[in-house]
Amino acid sequence: MTTNNHKLLNLLSKVLDVAPGSISDATSPENTDAWDSYNALVLVSELESEFNVSFGMDEVYAVKCVGDIRLALERHGINLIE
Q1: Of 49, 48, 13, nearest in space to 32 by CA
Q2: CATH number at residue 27
């Protein structure tokens, strides 16, 4: 069974072209070269599709790191605890 946490890590890994094991809550555009403005938009689209949620612009602008993505998903009722 694939958990939501695994889905999130695999999605981030795919979009940002990094190993899933290298992703932490502190992973951000400041420390991940591929996390540019284009891939930020791709991330939003992929997250919305994968988890069947819709983010408001305020939520999109509030994301500064993977930890923020986790919080946004949890606010939409997505359980990320393994």
Answers
A1: 13
A2: 1.10.1200.10
